[in-house]
C-alpha cells in the first residue's frame, strides 16, 4: 500500500514538473491576448527607468475580485510587473470581470505590465498545488521580463507604503538578498506536516477537494535539514532562477519531497535556500509582513481592523494581511499612508503633479521620477535593523538543535 502511494506521489510530482517547464509557452500566449497591448503602445521600459524593479504574483480565489482590484491599484507602479492568478475554481463571470478590469484600465494598456494567467491552476488549501502555482508564476515572469525581486501576495494583502517608498528603500540593497522567514525549530510541524503522506487532488483533478491522507507515515529526511517559516517572501531574481532552472539537483529533489508535505509553501523555499551552499548566506530572516496571530496561534491569522492601525504603522513593514473586503482600516491606510483616492492609484512620482494629488493616470514626462515619503523612511529603519551586523546570526541559516 505504501509503495502505491509513493508511486502515485511520483506521478503527481511529474505532473507538477510539466506545469512548470512545459506550459509557460501556452500561458504566455494567453497572457498576450488578455493584455491587449501592442508594441506601439508600450512607451515605458520600467527596468531601465527605475533603480530597482519588482515582479508581483497576486493570487486570488473565488469571491476575491473586489479585493483583487483594490489591492492591484494600491500596489501598482509602471516600473514593476504584475501577474494575476485567479484560481480555476472561481466562476467564469469572475475571471471575465478581472480580465475586463485589466483590459479597460488605460494605464495598464499603455504600460503593458499587468498580465493574467490564461490557464489558471486549481489550488487546494494546505496542498503543494499552491507551491506549484508560485513556481509556475516565477517561470513565466523570468521568461517575460527583467526584474530584481519577486513578491508573492494574495488578494487579502495590502501595502502600508507606496511603491515609490518601496523602490527607494530597496535601491541600496544587495540584489542577491532574499527575505525569507525561516527556522529549523519545526516543533509540532515535524509530526503534523513532515511525516504524513498526502496527495493533492488539485494537481490532476478539475474537482476541488481537500488533500488526501495516507495511513502510513514517513521518516524525517537525513539528506537535508528541514526549515519552515512564512509563505510570504521577497526573493531575488538569482535565487528564483535557481529555483526554476535548478543547475544542481537540489531544487528538484526538494520539490519531489514537498509534494508530500502539508502546507509546502511554508517550507520549500526555506529548506531550499538554507541547504544551498550558494544561497544560505543571502537570507534576511523576515517576511516584511505585518501579521497578527492569536495566542496560541491558530491556522489563520487575525483579521486586521482599525484597532491594529497604529501597530501596523509602527512595525515599519511594507505589507500587512489579512483584511476583509472594503474594511474601514483600508480607507485609513489609503488616506494617511498611500495618499490614494477612491478608485485611483497610490501616490507616486510617475503620475503626481503635487504633494497631495492622487494618481489617476500616467504622466509620460514623469517617467522614472520617484517621490518617496515617510513610508520610505520607516521601511529603511526596519531594513537597517534587520540587516545590521548584530543580527547577522539571526539572518543566516544556522541549524538549531
UniProtKB/TrEMBL annotation:
GO molecular function, one term: glucuronosyltransferase activity
Name of the protein in its database record: Branch domain-containing protein
Keywords linked to the UniProt accession: Glycoprotein, Glycosyltransferase, Membrane, Transferase, Transmembrane, Transmembrane helix
Domain of life: Eukaryota
Chain segments annotated as transmembrane: 6-23
Location of this chain's protein in the cell: Membrane
Record membrane topology: Single-pass type II membrane protein
Pfam families listed in its UniProt record: Branch
Amino acid at each position: 500500500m505504501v509503495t502505491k502511494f509513493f508511486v502515485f506521489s511520483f506521478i503527481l510530482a511529474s505532473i507538477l514538473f510539466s506545469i512548470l517547464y512545459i506550459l509557460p509557452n501556452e500561458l504566455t500566449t494567453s497572457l498576450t491576448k488578455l493584455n491587449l497591448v501592442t508594441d506601439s503602445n508600450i512607451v515605458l521600459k520600467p527596468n531601465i527607468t527605475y533603480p530597482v524593479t519588482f515582479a508581483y504574483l497576486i493570487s486570488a480565489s473565488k469571491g476575491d475580485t473586489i479585493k483583487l482590484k483594490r489591492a492591484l491599484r494600491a500596489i501598482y507602479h509602471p516600473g514593476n510587473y504584475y501577474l494575476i492568478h485567479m484560481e480555476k475554481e472561481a466562476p467564469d463571470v469572475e475571471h471575465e470581470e478581472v480580465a475586463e478590469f485589466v483590459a479597460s484600465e488605460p494605464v495598464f494598456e499603455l504600460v503593458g505590465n499587468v498580465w493574467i494567467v490564461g490557464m489558471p491552476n486549481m489550488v487546494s488549501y494546505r496542498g503543494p498545488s499552491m507551491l506549484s502555482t508560485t513556481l509556475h508564476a516565477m517561470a513565466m515572469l523570468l521568461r517575460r521580463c527583467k526584474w530584481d525581486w519577486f513578491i508573492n501576495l494574495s488578494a487579502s494583502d495590502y501595502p502600508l507604503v507606496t511603491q515609490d517608498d518601496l523602490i527607494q528603500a530597496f535601491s541600496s540593497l544587495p540584489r542577491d538578498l532574499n527575505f525569507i522567514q525561516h527556522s529549523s525549530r519545526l516543533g509540532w510541524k515535524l509530526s503534523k506536516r513532515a511525516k504524513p503522506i498526502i496527495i493533492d487532488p488539485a494537481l490532476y483533478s478539475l474537482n476541488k477537494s481537500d488533500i488526501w491522507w495516507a495511513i502510513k507515515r514517513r521518516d524525517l529526511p537525513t539528506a537535508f535539514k528541514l526549515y519552515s517559516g512564512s509563505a510570504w517572501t521577497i526573493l531575488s531574481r538569482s535565487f528564483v532562477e535557481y529555483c526554476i532552472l535548478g543547475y544542481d539537483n537540489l531544487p528538484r529533489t526538494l520539490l519531489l519531497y514537498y509534494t508530500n508535505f502539508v502546507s509546502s509553501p511554508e517550507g520549500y523555499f526555506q529548506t531550499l535556500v538554507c541547504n544551498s551552499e550558494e544561497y544560505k548566506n543571502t537570507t534576511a530572516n523576515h517576511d516584511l509582513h505585518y501579521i497578527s496571530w492569536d495566542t496560541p496561534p491558530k491556522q489563520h491569522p487575525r483579521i486586521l481592523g482599525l484597532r491594529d492601525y497604529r501597530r501596523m504603522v509602527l512595525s515599519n513593514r511594507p505589507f500587512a494581511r489579512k483584511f476583509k473586503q472594503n474594511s474601514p482600516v483600508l480607507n485609513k491606510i489609503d488616506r494617511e499612508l498611500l495618499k490614494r483616492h477612491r478608485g485611483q492609484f497610490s501616490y507616486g512620482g510617475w503620475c503626481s503633479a503635487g504633494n497631495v494629488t492622487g494618481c489617476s493616470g500616467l504622466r509620460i514626462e514623469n517617467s522614472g521620477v520617484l517621490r518617496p515619503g515617510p513610508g520610505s523612511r520607516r521601511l529603511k529603519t526596519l531594513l537597517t535593523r534587520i540587516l545590521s551586523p548584530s543580527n547577522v546570526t539571526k539572518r543566516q541559516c544556522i541549524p538549531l538543535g
